[in-house]
Amino acid sequence: MLRDLPPRGRWYIIAVVALGALLFVTLVPRATLTPVLSFGFLALLSVLTAAFKVQFPITGGSNMSVSYVVDIASILLWGPHAAMIVGAASGWSQSTLNARKRNPPFRTLFNMAMLVITVEAAGQVFRALGGSVDARLVAMAVPLMAMAFSYFLVNTIPLALAIALTTNQNAWRIWRTDFLPNAPSYLVGAATAAIVIKVAETSGYALTLLLALPVALLALNLYRARGEIEARQGAILEAAQDAIITMDHQLNIREFNPAAEQLFGYARLDILGRHVQMLMPQADRAQYLNALGEYLTSGRGPLAGRQLEMHGLKADGSEFPMELTVARLGTDSRTILTA
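Structure (tokenized):
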């Protein structure tokens, strides 16, 4: 519930929702939605791709969201005011449709407001730099890339701040770790939207849809495969009798299953983003951190392929003996540890 959030986080969310609502009510009446059928199709496409979180993997380990491509296309074709409708629909669908758990209303409204603000800001940047969908791709390059960059910043910085304020984490660390690596996908997505529009203009929308069908099927298969993997992982974490903790390359906690909550006495939301050292007694902390750091960077050390007997530190300050087994996952640039 909204009232359960820290006061700063609560008022921040209320302010963002109010700003999004004000922009929507003020500017949408000025939007041009013709042809209505095409606009309705694009809005529906945004709803579906956002609900099913359809993404394509690109270089650098990031993914390109198809719903983002649809948002950019709506800005190019109908302008930022009309695109706010598409953005709001996308924010609503990703929070309500196909969700594992029912999201509280404030989270749905926040997501809708964030996308309303984002598409309006990105569209205004595109227009301010002289961007036009009627221009050639070369002439669109600078305003298009500026729009993508603006979309990325406006969409991710306030979101990182919201997470930080509601979970007592560091906003800069969240943005740098969780959002910055995905920056290339925004540029790729904007270029994809522009290219698809140009192909549709020259080849006809029927042929474009026909060519896009295999891509859509591939995206659906990728979504199904990813959904099955995430469902299995989620079930394992929830049902595991042993405490499971996932840490990023800076040893900040990224996952904390129910068994870990019970063992250490911390609620999951209270500890996500915190450094794992808070679970270690002061006297042994340096030794444990050195062992984790060595295994993280090289895969060697006292944790390599063996179980380590150590002591943990509960939320109430008491210590207890435990056995630690660590797995090193990911690439060299985005390594994580699961213990």
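DSSP finds twelve helices and eight strands in the chain. The chain has two domains: 2-238, 242-338.
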